Amino acid sequence: AERVQRSGAGGMERPQPRANGCSGAAHGALRNGYVRGLSAPDTQINHIVHNGGLYKRPFNEAFEETPMLVAVLTYVGYGVLTLFGYLRDFMRYWKIEKCQNTTEREEQKDFVPLYQDFENFYNRNLYMRIRDSWNRPICSVPGAKMDMMERVSHDYNWTFTYTGKVIKDVINMGSYNYLGFAQNAGPCKEAAAKILSQYGVGVCSTRQEMGNLEKHEELERLVARFLGVESAMAYGMGFATNSMNIPALVGKGCLILSDELNHASLVLGARLSGATIRIFKHNNMQSLEKLLKDAIVHGQPRTRRPWKKILILVEGVFSMEGSIVRLPEVIALKKKYKSYLYLDEAHSIGALGPGGRGVVEYFGLNPEDVDVMMGTFTKSFGASGGYIAGKKELIDYLRTYSHSAVYATSLSPPVVEQIITSMKCIMGEDGTTVGKARVQQLAENTRYFRRRLKELGFIIYGNEDSPVVPLMLYMPAKIGAFGREMLKRNIGVVVVGFPATPIIESRARFCLSAAHTREMLDTALKEINEVGDLLQLKYSRHRLVPLLDRPFDETTYEETED
Amino acid sequence: MNVGVAHSEVNPNTRVMNSRGMWLTYALGVGMLHVVLLSIPFFSVPVAWTLTNVIHNLGMYVFLHAVKGTPFETPDQGKARLLTHWEQLDYGVQFTSSRKFFTISPIILYFLASFYTKYDPTHFILNTTSLLTVLIPKLPQLHGVRIFGINKY
Questions:
Q1: Alpha-carbon distance A134 to nearest alpha carbon in chain B (angstroms)
Q2: Residue A31 and residue A271: Cα distance in Å, rounded?
Q3: Which label site among A182, A240, A325, A494 has the fewest CB atoms less than 10 Å from its CB?
Q4: Does A539 touch chain B (CB under 8 A)?
């Protein structure tokens, strides 16, 4: 095993890196971010992304390719399920088997059908079989451990009955609780309860009418200070922040360049705006640059007029892949081609960066370079809602023209107080170091968990520093099996498969939290190891050699072994 | 689980045939079918080849040219509801690699079947008609065409 030291910018003796982040994979020693094979130390390629010194810290992202055998077996699995689906549909049609789906009444059979039966094929033949892994009812606060109502199904998941038992202390690896603020005790709760008795729960109006409380103004000043920008505006719902504000910013005649794996709220907002949408490959800066060049050179499709605005839509941390956007390169491209950047920090605010200020602080960049910074309070602050931050002119414009401000109810006061208290805690303004400790704990948990999972031999997608950890399952039966086996061992996980993901990339997604202690993570890892052996999930061909425990710091060592 | 939760691909059906390993799985499937047919003792080799060809073309016709729409709800308000899977491939762009592959594979199977049946007339008629049922719908001129209104809605 070779020892490769990774550090940030610099490295004149190393071969020229390419724009999209791969540094010299010519002789096949490097694939997907791992060094394979032992090469001589003097030809050792440093596989860290460094694009002319834009990155101040190592950027390690890897998406190991699906092994061919696994892909073939996955297709066989879906094929068998499809054939059995047709068989069951046939039996249901000829009344050999009772149909438990809702159908139209006999009297309506002569009319044109309201729904197409085939569109429900996947739902009734595949999703129903493993439906018990989703929509599980929780009956406690979704902290690091939670209580779940036990449900059982006697007709293969068509109906559920509650046994009455409550499964206690299930380790929660699925909630977006990055800094552990999902608590029902502590200073945030006290503050929120006080404000509840003072202001009540409902606001009963939109921001522009009677719903503008001084609490909202206080929150917005605090958010602007937290992010280091001029001004901010807060909305009641994170999804609505994206889908209602992008139409206010761009319209017909503008161009939106959106990442392949953007969230549904961004896609909806882009579609609602009426602008032209072009999609670039996920986190691929060459693809983005090509689209930018083509847009500027060719202009609008038929008239060849210049675009009114070009808006690049990216997310800080992509929630299904666990990858972090290549922000330094995006900002360099944005400046070069004079376009605007909309950064959705739903999962990265509070979770990345030494002070929890998000992906901009993580890369050490200037917040003023990002034109529109959007984020949500749902994930790291334990509340709900979203915000948009940026220059004062932009936010003043949005106060008038945003659809959310005009039509949607504003944030509820106890929720606002929760956000204010948790944000002050993260900033350290409440007089304790609890916030800083939580941010550091999350970073340590992330590194530890990812490293251990890779050592165990699972295929993990994404960046080393992202608290979202997708573990690849691939086969449809393993999706259901993984969810159920983990629940049997008292761990709650989120699994997702086709058609939400590409057909050969079904996964289980772990969301780490600062509230997870080392013991909880070790228990979880032990159970994941067991389930991995039971279900044969350890597909990775590039195993990391276990390291001696090292302290959390900037320079890290990696050893790989074929 | 709905379409578009983890990606912005509006209709995943368009990309399924391009995924890694799909062509290999398809080839292995055809091979498996042929081996099963060869193992049945009362089928001679020519009969087994003709049956492979016919069953393969029948399956291809049903799944690619008869079944319409998507097995899941797509977020594009059902643009593909009246399109067969072949018409949905790559959003209707003609002559992509998947389309070429799936056009050539029944032809190769036809060559092999003709060879192994020693160009016998009965087998020839069966094989050729079956090949035509699966080649004609793939022509770009027949994109979206429904003859005599069959399979229109």
A1: 9
A2: 36
A3: A494
A4: no
Do the beta carbons of residue A258 and residue A270 sit within 8 Å?
yes
Structure tokens at A388: 């948009």
B4 domain-assigned = no
Question: pTM higher than 0.90, yes or no?
Answer: no
Edge to edge, what strands does the sheet with A145-152 contain? A145-152, A161-172, A491-492
Structure tokens belonging to residue A94: 């000829």
Could A118 and B69 be called an inter-chain contact, meaning their C-beta atoms sit closer than 8 Å? yes
CA distance linking residue A373 with residue A353, whole number of Å = 15
> Residue A360 half-sphere exposure, CB side, CA atoms within 13 Å?
25
Tell me which residue in B7, B22, B72 faces A119 most closely, judged by beta carbons. Answer: B72
Number of H helices, E strands in chain B: 6, 0
Assembly ipTM = 0.94
Chain B residues in contact with chain A using a Cβ-Cβ cutoff of 8 Å: 1-9, 12, 15-16, 19-22, 24-25, 28-29, 67-73, 78, 81
Main-chain dihedrals φ then ψ at residue A560, nearest 5 degrees: -120, 155
A113 contacts A150 by C-beta, under 8 angstroms: no
Point out the least confidently predicted range of A12-26, A84-98, A358-372, B13-27: A12-26
Look up residue A125 and give its DSSP letter. I
Q: Which of B2, B3, B24 sits opposite A72 (nearest CB)?
A: B24
Domain count, chain B: 1
Which pLDDT score is estimated for A54? Answer: 78
Instruction: List the CATH code of the domain at A187-427.
Output: 3.40.640.10
Q: Pairing relation of β-strands A34-35 and A30-31?
A: antiparallel
Q: What is the CATH number of domain A64-172+435-540?
A: 3.90.1150.10
Looking at the domain assignment, is residue B97 inside a domain?
yes
